[in-house]
Amino acid sequence: MKKETKTNKFISIPFIGELALSGARPLIGVFLGLLAGAGLIALSGVNPLHAYRAMLEGAIGSPQAIANVLVRASPLLLGGVGVAIGIKSGVWNIGIEGYMYAGAIGAGIIGIMALPVAPIVHIILAMLAAMVFAAVWGFAPAYMRAYRGVNEVVATIMMNYVAIFLTSWLVHEPQFMAEPGSFFPMSLLIAPTAKLPILMKGTSLHPGFIIGIAACVIFYLVLRFTPFGFRTRMLGVNPIGSRYAGVKVKKQILLVLLIGAVLGGLAGAIEILGLKMRVYMDFVAGVGYESVAVALLSGGNPLAVIASALFFAALKAGGATMSIQTGVGAPMTTIIEALCVIFVIAVGHGERMRLRRLEAKAKGTEEVQENDN
Amino acid sequence: MTIDIIVDWLQATLRWGAPLIIVSIGEVYAERSGVINMGIEGIMLFGALAGVAVSFLTENVLLAALFSIFLGALFGLAVAYLTVSRRTNQVVTGLMLNLAALGGSNLLFALLSESRHERVARFPILFPEVFHNIPILGPILFRQPVSTWIALILPFLAAYVLYRTDWGLNVRAVGENPQSAATAGLPVIKLKYQAVILSGIFAALGGCVLTLGEVGYFASGGMTAGRGFVVLAAVVVGGWDPIRTALICLVFGAADAAQLRMQTAGSVIPYQFLQMLPYLITVIALAGVVGHTRPPKTWGAPYDPKDV
């Protein structure tokens, strides 16, 4: 009985219809999230229309604003695609925050050195160091998840806290990275040769978003067209079946989590080399968790990550302007982010119910027809 | 001298362990009913803020505790509606609740900013002064706030309810096999709601105990510092048993207390490495027990009444 309905579902729902449903779902969710956010803004005594207009202005009102959005989008793009690959294979990679710290440490160590090399070489070396550091950092939870079956959500989150404390230690005197005599513990400034170029005068626009979008496109192609991508998707759809099909499940999970770690490390490096120019405690401040929201809104599709990362970055950038103009606190945008994702997943249930009703209806008519015959 | 240090450490262990134990009780019930409430970190955060806010405004800790319980029930209801009625993914729901709670608590705390780092009225000490002078036991047990005593008694009460009452049996049945439970006439959805709402209540109360039992103020940007996730690990390590989970929570509390003591004692180890200790112990403990404990059968799986 149950199997029958399942096969029916695949046959009776036309492909285009499913696509339309899955495409509309995030949009409906985002709309409801913004609506609920408007309600909260109204509760705090501010006209939500004013607040959203300020937000829009802060996000796309000027070239500087757009540059700001792109700068904020860089870590979200890389972190988001890292989490998205995990979602595709059925594992939760919540460790982006920690990978970003590990990457920042790696990039920072290479970055503060005065190397007699061309800037591009210095930048690449720093980024490579970041990716290696993050991979080493991510290996422990990834191995425990893949080979020991430890819950990856708790393990990666615990490692995030450990990473923050490690960073704190490294930027305090007398460690070699620390800026001597500074009031606030931080690392030395990175060398001029390690700084990412500024693409637009008067802003801090660095090429991070290009790297991020490239990563999204590359991983879209990898997931779509390579055997590795196929194994990843198969693992997510049917873990038991993929084991029978000869996928080395443990190795695959390890690789997927490590890819997320490497991407997170790169995101941390770009933040340091392009924007912050120093390593310090709390420099990430929640971007890692927002990457999870980005990936969830995208439904695990790397191309959709581009859209959702830009959307969340615009929300954040606009939130700063909203806060200045209307007095609604900037953390409101974090709430709106979370609400959007919650509505997206809750709308998903409504869809399933609608499919089921359609199915029952279709089956009902079939039965009627059978009776007529 | 050394005895003093150990006594002081044990006393702090109970005080730091108490919020974890209280939060863990609710989570044990929720997970026994099959629902992992990953949002306890966020609910704890809100309970912590609500406790400080109400205590600051009214100087009445009982009112503070009641208000955080009320808030926790609301959050529990939201989680139950999403994960049970709308069958959303439990991990996603919890993580997004945590994200919203982080934003929300920062937002609300900014409104109360005059109380920033100002100590508010805290939970009173239960036993009169006379008991405090009993050697060793005095400071460890009797110089504790009411909340610690609640945390010490609660696991036994919770175990009794879970194993010896009809309601407890029903919750366990729902988590093991909701279909048979429904066939036997149990209100599966209602029981899951009750268990999840309990997890919200205890999470908020635990947060309130964290601020009003120990520190007495709220710090913006992650007051709970991952303690909700530590509790999630403790429930797994404790094998979904209230008493064993409470003991594991005490171990984590001991790690927390030890790192704080060692920080102030000026140890040779940098304090950041001591701060890592509770988190590392959590991961190691999780890795150690895998395969040795068995989760409830439908742990984390959504329940669809139409599945037969």
Describe this structure in words.
The complex is a heterodimer of chains A (373) and B (308). Chain A has 373 residues and is mainly α. Chain A has a domain at 73-301. Chain A has 14 helices and no strands. The longest helix of chain A has 41 residues, at 332-372. Chain A starts with a helix and ends with a helix. Chain B has 308 residues and is mostly helical. Chain B has a domain at 18-228. Chain B has 13 helices and no strands. Chain B has helices at 2-32, 40-58, 61-85, 90-111, 129-132, 137-142, 146-164, 166-176, 178-183, 188-215, 227-237, 242-265, 271-289. In chain B, helix 1 (2-32) packs antiparallel against helix 10 (188-215) and helix 2 runs parallel beside helix 4. Chain B is globular and about 60 Å long. In chain B, 52% of the residues are buried. The mean pLDDT of chain B is 83. The interface between A and B is large, with 51 and 45 residues.
Indicate the mean pLDDT of chain A: 83
Q: Greatest contact pair?
A: A-B, 51 and 45 residues
Share of β-strand residues of chain B:
under 5%
Helix fraction bin of chain B: over 70%
H-E string of chain A: HHHHHHHHHHHHHH
Structural class of chain A: mainly alpha
- The number of helical runs of chain A is 14
Rg of Cα set of chain B: 19 Å
The major sheet of chain B is characterized as: none
Q: Calculate the mean pLDDT score of chain B and round it.
A: 83
Give the tally of β-strands of chain B: 0
Poorly predicted runs of chain B: none
Shape of chain B: globular
Q: Give the H and E element order of chain B.
A: HHHHHHHHHHHHH
Number of helices of chain B: 13
